[in-house]
Amino acid sequence: MTVRTEPPDVAPLRRPAVVRAVLLFGGLVLVALLVAASVGLGVRSVSLSDIIAALAGQQETVAQAAVVARVPRTVLAILVGAALAVSGMAMQAVTRNPLADPGIFGVSSGAALAVVIGISFFGLSSPWSTMGLAVLGSACAAVFVYTVGSLGRGGATPLKLALAGAATTAALESLVSALLLPRVEAMQIFRFWQIGGVGGATWDRIALVAPVIGIAAVIVVLTAPGMNSLALGDDVATALGERVARTRAFAAIGAVILCGAATSVAGPIAFVGLVVPHLGRLLIGTDHRWLLPLSALLGAALLLAADVVGRLVARPEEVEVGVVTALIGAPFFIWIVRRQRVRQL
Amino acid sequence: MSSAAIIEGRKRRLRHRRLTITLLTVAIIVVFAVSLMVGNTFYGPGEVLRVILGDSVPGASFAVGELRLPRAVIATLAGVSFGMGGATFQTMLRNPLASPDIIGITSGASAAAVLGIVFLSLSQTAVSLLALAGALATALAIYLLSIKGGFAGTRLILIGIGIAAMLNSLTTYALAQAASWDLQTAMRWLTGSLNSSSWEVAAPLAAVCVLLVPALALQGRNLAALALGDDSAASLGVRVNRVRVLLILGAVTLLAVATAATGPIAFVAFMAGPIAARLVGPGDALLIPAGVVGALLVLLADLVGQFAFDTRYPVGVITGVLGAPFLIWLLIRTNRSGGSL
């Protein structure tokens, strides 16, 4: 049996009800504040009265127009951040692996390869087909990395999964660049998709992914109690009456759709799925029924914050959220690795 | 098993090993010679030999002496460096997937070079120096971060993967910011290409190789001991930490200098070691065979990239396309059998 990866003294199963409620409320307030920052701050900062006027439907001044233009990207940041965080949480639960993250596991590179194949060979560049391809590619990569990572002695250890993910990413990326090299236009489209951003958000694209993300989120929510049993190990979970294989399959399907849909609109964004669930567990405990909403809130907050920071640091240019999250996330990843005992890697 | 049988087996393996290395070297010489002869104009062996010996041959002196010869020399030296550097890491970390391509050292060189090209508009020499510094700094950071109450290879690999993810996103960012002419330079650099070969590029690479290739090869036995684990190595009389730091330093310098000369030629550092291990069989000294295989890979891939298709592809595209399925195959095989080359 695999060793429990969360030392019990670090993350309690569940905090008292009051603490949980306060934490969730705090998460909501944080998201609300960041939404205000996201529509208010940017290359051109606007006043609070302009924000209110713009949200009420006025679009007379430049400042109000700027606010209106920032609303879709704010909504998209919330959606994508929440989706990635919940996806990462489900992956960590399914694989019982503290390093699980769509980016680390090479799931995003599967989406990238599928999208590029679609553009290059089949001329599929409509938003619908892009999303379908991204989800399909994510699913293939996820299944492949997990299967390969669990081969052999010791099962799916963090080291084997991370190496399998990194190796798969390297291999798929090299295929992507080989496909793109002779196709200049495809390279131009792909270059901006690949970097991971919410700057190109439009209401059309949001309307396209929001239902998909919603359905997948419901699937994950329904498996949340089952994830608690999974954390005890397959034997104990089975003994408790949990249908382990079914729970795991549904949670994984939800996680992959969430990640694929988010990736299809915003490009690969690494580390959100890794950082947020860890943070959430430290705050609220390991009960997935509570961890899930908190992760969604914190994921939305992280992506909003990353987007705002990215807009402010390099004015008048923008640093895409994917870069900001990688710069924040990698040190966090290293911290998690250093925290584990060598034997558990 | 009797001791005579063991000795006989060892002799047989040594013979096999020598034969393989000899054959590979012959293959390198043949491919090297072919790459000097073919091109826009074909020159016969006689003309090529006269150019190498210093005679002035109209046309050939420039095409062979200034274009094809430095290109082939750089291909060989870079291949040796990538092969030996990669095999050092793979052996030391006891995992064929733990090549510098995967654990972030190549990413360090790439990120530094691309940032230099895009934001500082540096010259080719300055970019090479920056790539060298980037690779060394990344290796140092990964090594230091992976120490926590002692060294652990698994921790080093994981931290390398995290650092690589961060650096790759910086590279992607720089590419997205790049003006289109810088983008082309940066992409060409990232792919790994021998198109900008000249004697000025070859000279520093050759100097470093002359120093470090024998030095690293002499450490082969210590490296094999390290692969047994720190305790076993220490009981064999190896000064574990000193040897490890020296090996990392040597391997990273070789890799970084080669990367500075050609850009990161995809997956050569990763493929050479496992291929060499298959060819010569398991044994303690994998570094020299890995270097030979690396050189052959780069020379062959460059020939294929230049002449096999209608368009000329940089060498890195060819090794990348070859390397990707190999990487997947090796990933499956490694996990199934539980590690080791």
Automatic annotation (TrEMBL), chain A:
Q: Which GO terms describe its cellular component?
A: plasma membrane
Bilayer disposition of the protein = Multi-pass membrane protein
- Please provide, alphabetically and separated by semicolons, the GO molecular function terms listed in this UniProt record: transmembrane transporter activity
Xref: InterPro entries:
ABC_BtuC-like, ABC_transptr_permease_BtuC
Enumerate the UniProt keywords alphabetically: Cell membrane, Membrane, Transmembrane, Transmembrane helix, Transport
Q: Where are the transmembrane segments?
A: 20-43, 74-91, 103-124, 131-149, 161-181, 202-224, 249-279, 291-313, 319-337
Q: List where in the cell it is found.
A: Cell membrane
Concerning Gene3D superfamilies, the annotation shows: ABC transporter involved in vitamin B12 uptake, BtuC
Taken from the record, one Pfam family name reads FecCD
Biological process (GO) annotations held by this record are: siderophore-iron import into cell
- PANTHER family, per the entry: FE(3+) DICITRATE TRANSPORT SYSTEM PERMEASE PROTEIN FECC-RELATED (PTHR30472:SF1), FERRIC ENTEROBACTIN TRANSPORT SYSTEM PERMEASE PROTEIN (PTHR30472)
* Homology family: Belongs to the binding-protein-dependent transport system permease family. FecCD subfamily.
Q: What is this protein called?
A: Iron complex transport system permease protein
Organism of this sequence: Tessaracoccus bendigoensis DSM 12906
TrEMBL record, chain B:
Mind listing the UniProt keywords for this protein, alphabetically?
A: Cell membrane, Membrane, Transmembrane, Transmembrane helix, Transport
User: What's a single GO CC term here?
Assistant: plasma membrane
Enumerate the Gene Ontology biological process terms: siderophore-iron import into cell
Compartments reported by the entry: Cell membrane
Where primarily located?
Answer: membrane
Topology with respect to the bilayer:
Multi-pass membrane protein
- Where is the chain membrane-spanning? 21-43, 72-90, 102-120, 126-145, 157-181, 201-218, 245-273, 285-304, 313-332
Protein name according to UniProt: Iron complex transport system permease protein
Instruction: Tell me what organism the protein belongs to.
Output: Tessaracoccus bendigoensis DSM 12906
Q: What is the lineage of its organism?
A: Bacteria, Bacillati, Actinomycetota, Actinomycetes, Propionibacteriales
